[in-house]
Amino acid sequence: MKPELVIIGGGLAGSEAAWQAAERGMKVLLYEMRPGTMTDVHRTGDLAELVCSNSFKSGDIFNAHGLLKEELRMLGSLIIMTADKNRIPAGSALAVDRSEFSKMVTEVITSHPNIRLIREEVPEPSFETPVIIATGPLTSDKMAEGLRKSIGYDFIYFYDAISPIISAGSIDETKVFRASRYNKGGDDYINCPMSRDEYENFYNAIMSAEKTPVKEFEKIPYFEGCMPVDALAERGMDTLLYGPLKPVGLRDPSAGKEPYAVVQLRQEDRFGQAYNMVGFQTRLKWPEQRRVFRMIPGLEEAEFLRYGSLHRNTYINSPLLLDDSLRLKKTDNIYFAGQIVGVEGYTESVAMGLIAGISATMHIRGDEFIPPPATAAIGALLNYVAAGGTSDFQPMNVNWGLLPPLLRKIRDKEMYRKKLVERAIKDIEKWKTQLKM
Ligand SMILES: Cc1cc2nc3c(=O)[nH]c(=O)nc-3n(C[C@H](O)[C@H](O)[C@H](O)COP(=O)(O)OP(=O)(O)OC[C@H]3O[C@@H](n4cnc5c(N)ncnc54)[C@H](O)[C@@H]3O)c2cc1C
């Protein structure tokens, strides 16, 4: 078989991309290095192995994760259809029997007449045949080095240092003030002022909060610029006052003076629906982040769109490198898919595999690829990685803050979400007809 498309990496994204392309008649050559060469977390040679949890998160369509899955179902995702077939009871979450799930994906891929699977590590990207690089967060060292050489040392990262993101509507505006440090840059930041007592209580809560244990392979050489807020706190009571909580240059207009400490929130998306907690990358467990960060004045009711984290993760600076078909800009045959494009999570990685599989196929066939609508979860996520929210690009999971707001104001939160979901489903239906799916 002379391949028309090469896919490197048979994880969640690579398997999805291979299926999407093969179902459209492409001759696909899929490389997977396991079981001959393993990563630090994979345990089997199966394709689409779930490396940690056996859950694809919420199945509720009125949850952003559930909506993304529903869209993927509508778009004929192999991974989500296989997850549905191997579903086990887990409340509203879509959890699967991990072993049966991966075995079934492997069986479907290896028996597909248009897919040939080769069990080999690809040491560096080869750009002769159109290629989708889907080597994941634990891309092999050789491939990572090859990518560094071809896309540039400054555009590939090996660790995430992620700060939590909060929905704008959940911030208590009466307790915060808008300003930039030393008034440089207008009212760009939301500032949460703290008194000495508030700071000390907060500090003690951080110190005693439960942290995620760090696995051997995830031991991270911290750079000062991305030190976790809890690691900084361990250096002493006042360290945070010279770091992410420093108050200098910020005058609280209601008190008429500089507060004792300040937490700054920076706008995350172009619609101003989401705010990033500046410098709050953290190892605190998720429930602890919710408990401790809600002690910050103004954030008592904070809705976390994304929690903070710090872990091993290979990803590229997609907003600079990729176009809205996940193709490397200025090339016509190199695509990226999965977590490596800067998304977080199983379903998100699958979504980026589905897009790359479809877009590569369409380009190879000489057809125009129209990206999915940004009003749908899959389009919003693609839009985030291709257009990027901020200058310092950080990986993102799917969340409501990524979707453009409705033009019509609706006060009731449930009704608002319902309308967002209706719009997304309608627009995905329309997209399918545009793509003649
Ligand atoms: C430790 C860890 C735990 C995680 N836990 C969760 C979780 O619980 N829930 C969640 O939603 N997300 C989780 N994620 C994030 C992410 O969703 C998963 O990593 C997901 O599997 C990413 O999909 P992918 O297809 O991009 O990468 P992968 O599924 O990892 O697939 C990449 C594949 O490429 C292969 N490969 C790598 N280099 C080469 C090469 N040079 N040549 C050939 N093959 C190669 C690998 O063997 C692998 O099979 C976790 C990530 C990590 C690192």
Structural class: alpha/beta
CATH fold name of the largest domain: FAD/NAD(P)-binding domain
Strand line-up in the sheet with most strands: 10-11-12-13-9-14
The low-pLDDT segments are none
Which geometry do the CA atoms define?
Answer: globular
Cα radius of gyration in angstroms = 22 Å
Q: Assign the CATH class of the largest domain.
A: Alpha Beta
User: What is the ordering of alpha helices and beta strands?
Assistant: EHEEHHEEHEEHEEEEHHEEHEEHEHHH
Number of spatially distinct domains: 2
- Beta-strand share of residues: 15-25%
List keywords for this structure.
437 residues, binds flavin-adenine dinucleotide, alpha/beta, globular, 16 strands, FAD/NAD(P)-binding domain, Elongation Factor Tu (Ef-tu), domain 3, five-stranded parallel sheet, 31% helix
Please tell me about this protein's structure.
The protein folds into two domains: 5-155 and 313-434, 3-Layer(bba) Sandwich (FAD/NAD(P)-binding domain), CATH 3.50.50; 165-307, Elongation Factor Tu (Ef-tu), domain 3 (Beta Barrel). Helix content is 31%, strand content 16%. By secondary structure, it is of the alpha/beta class. Helix 2 runs parallel beside helix 12. It has twelve helices and 16 strands. It has a six-stranded antiparallel β-sheet with strand order 10-11-12-13-9-14. Strands 6-2-1-7-16 form a five-stranded parallel β-sheet, with helices on one face. Helix 1 (12-23) links the parallel strand 1 and strand 2. The structure holds flavin-adenine dinucleotide. Flavin-adenine dinucleotide (FAD) binds at residues 8-14, 31-34, 39, 41-42, 51-53, 121-122, 134-140, 143, 338-340, 345-346, 349.
